[in-house]
Amino acid sequence: MSNLKKKLINGDFVITVEITPPKGTEISQMVNKLQELKLLVDAVNFTDNPSGKMRMCSLAACKISLDLGFEPVLQMTCRDRNRIGIQSDLLGAHALGIRNLLVMTGDHPVMGDHKEAKPVYDIDSSILLKLVNNLNNGFDLNGNKLNGKTEFFYGAVVNPNAEPLIPQLKRFEQKLKMGAEFFQTQMIFETALLEKFMEHAGKFNTKVIAGIVIIRSKKMLHYLNSKVPGVSVPGWLIDKIEGLKDEDVEKFGVELAGKLILNIMEQKLCHGIHIMAFSKVEEVKNLLNFIKIKL
Amino acid sequence: MIITRKKDLKEIEEYIENFDKFFLIGCSECATLCGTGSEEAILNLKQWLENNNKKVTGWMIAKTGCQILGTKRELSQYRQDIEEAQCIMVLSCGAGTQSITELFEEKPVIPVNDTLFIGNMRRLREFEERCRACGECFLAITGVCVVTLCPKSMLNGPCGGYKDGKCEVNPLRKCAWIVAYEILKKRGLIEKFYENILGPKDWSKANSPRMFKEK
User: Fold this and answer.
1) Domain Methylene-tetrahydrofolate reductase C-terminal-like: where (chain B) (predicted)?
2) Together in a domain, B100 and B30
């Protein structure tokens, strides 16, 4: 059983962090970051060509992490592979020792750096969950028997910021039915929307890990708000950050994320946090230092 | 209907530079509705060719350009004009253009239009894609074609990328699944819809080239 699964089942508050694999073959920076993060958090998520921007595959990055003795979460999207490619990659990932999966449909290539690419979307994330469930039971998506089944701990994503929210809640329930064992949320900026979502999610027996982003510049805030699918920065936060001097934004960003996490922990709102720091280890350290855990 | 758009004349210039005599064929169905295969479109092209010192030996508008035998019959009375022409220019969709290729394999056949999609006309010459011809219609379940209208062809509800009900890929468009949700809600079918999941979709029904013959 993966350490992440064990901790979530035990009711421990988990901390995961997101790393984007390198755009190129140079892995030393990623390795250095992993070595530092290993001591700080429970698992590391490797993104799958986020926003449709081409990078090293999540699977290879997960293997590098495993070799460093650090538990990875493989992100798998439906954008770039059909059902054959996905299953083939997942069997390979399992053989390499990868046990945690986070599955999603994936951002459309139109947002990325290969806008002309033909998107695949052979299946959507609900079917992908069914597919993983089948692999775990020893069958492929079509019910053909496998020679050896997988033992994946698999989760799905949900966006508590979505407006209107009800279709998103319905998708959440659907993903639960498909066997999702945990959920990771899109980045949240205030607890109100998370509380509203958890009011609903709390009715079900599942684990929710809240996505937390550390804002480090005004430019980044505007990028998130206008370019990242499903992210809406609240107006009050844009006003607040616009009112700050550029050099004060990063400190504010860490404090904001820190207070949000403390609030989540105090209220026992959900079961862990997922830090989206865009591979900036220093910021993760600052944040964890701020909330005085793990350090 | 099949939506077509007139090609840029610069592209057409390259195809016809070695020819002087042309026969033009339009189509009275979709291409006429699109304004790309109508009499007006034909006469405009004729005028343009003549302004470029080319000769038009004749022209006609096929009733249904993609109906091969019917078009062949209609063309029989233009045999001489076609023989005189070095090249045939077709103002229809790609299917109509290929009917003509099949009938005149020895003569160059040039498409005047680009074929865009299967869609509906909302206002005059304002078209929206509505059908991907995927071979497996879910409209009874989803109300709108999510295979076509959702850029990710999500079959089971919206992705997490919509913002204020607008699509992640084109924020000017409403998320297809929000449209579907509103229809299902009006029909009282939300709970029923989410009881099951759709798919995995059988995309092999859309493997090209497709053939169909009514028994």
Assistant:
1) 111-204
2) yes
